[in-house]
Amino acid sequence: MIVVKYFGVIAEHTNSTEEQIGLSELSLPDCVAALMKKYSFEDVQFSIALNQNLIDKSSDIVLRANDELAFLPPFAGG
To answer: Which pTM does this prediction carry?
Structure first.
């Protein structure tokens, strides 16, 4: 299982803060594209963290069982 967490405006679009994906060996770009299509948040700016480390959402990474993927809204400094 891959755990996907949603924060801020993305959680509002998904009506959820977390879900689990039963697939593993899934590429990050394929996963991101599928979730964007499923929840229609193509117009929302976001960053991605994999296992609590920020990564480029177009990285050619293969997601594995027990990975945690987080969709993060833009951060405001202060």
So the answer is: 0.89
